[in-house]
Amino acid sequence: MNGKKYAAELIGTFWLTFAGCGSAVIAAAFPQVGIGLVGVSLAFGLSVVTMAYAIGHVSGCHLNPAVTVGLAAGGRFPAGQILPYVIAQVVGAVAGAAVLYVIASGAAGFDLAKGFASNGYGDHSPGKYSMVAGFIMEVVMTMMFLFIIMGSTHGKAPAGFAPLAIGLALVMIHLVSIPVTNTSVNPARSTGPALFVGGWALQQLWLFWVAPLVGGVLGGAIYRWLSDEPAGVVEGKVAT
């Protein structure tokens, strides 16, 4: 029955990438009524909230390799399931970016050189922030994201509110870090657009794998130390 969990992760990460990156590519700067930085931040957060309620009971709704690895580091997810979850997430993100590309390229003036919501540092950072600044930002933000996920899904946390806490955390993360790296905290989300942009986006993609994974492990491990009471794994339960 694990196949259903992987399918849920694929669909969920598709939605996060398509809706989140789509808000940046299609709607952020639309003349007169563009949603801007705040709108993009909300789109990413809402994509997680909606999917957490839709598939949280199936797969745990990780949608992010850093979340999967961080939950494993925190003792809340079986290590043997990391690889298939990550593969499903990356496939979903690439599929989301592919559909977004087909739609976005249907507009006159579409240009991949504008970034296609890829993450970057240096000349490719929205605010021209350095590689070191970008690395630190991604580590810290992913660390705190995992800390919040671990706490809000703990057995003693208020029931039913985890998706809201996690989604709002992602909104806040984007509000702070979009100017620095265009916000990743998610290696799968970064990989999808980078494959279409190529060149600099692929060359800088390493940071958006390494930093979030480091941050995820730190966040999971710190929360495990802070509150080591058993609370169950975060991987859902497929009905038989």
A few lines on this structure:
With 240 residues, this protein is mainly α.
Written description of the protein model:
The chain is 66% helix and 0% strand. It is mostly helical and 240 residues long. α5 packs parallel to α9 (207-226). The protein is globular, with a radius of gyration of 17 Å.
Quick one: how many beta strands? 0
Return residue spans where pLDDT drops below 50 for at least 5 consecutive residues. Answer: none
* C-alpha termini separation: 8 Å
| Percent range of helical residues | 55-70%
Order of helices and strands: HHHHHHHHH
Q: Write down the Rg.
A: 17 Å
Estimate the global geometry from the Cα principal axes.
globular
Largest sheet features: none
List its salient traits.
240 residues, 9 helices, 66% helix, 0% strand
List the helices and strands and how they pair.
Elements: H1 2-27, H2 36-59, H3 65-73, H4 82-104, H5 131-152, H6 162-181, H7 187-197, H8 200-203, H9 207-226
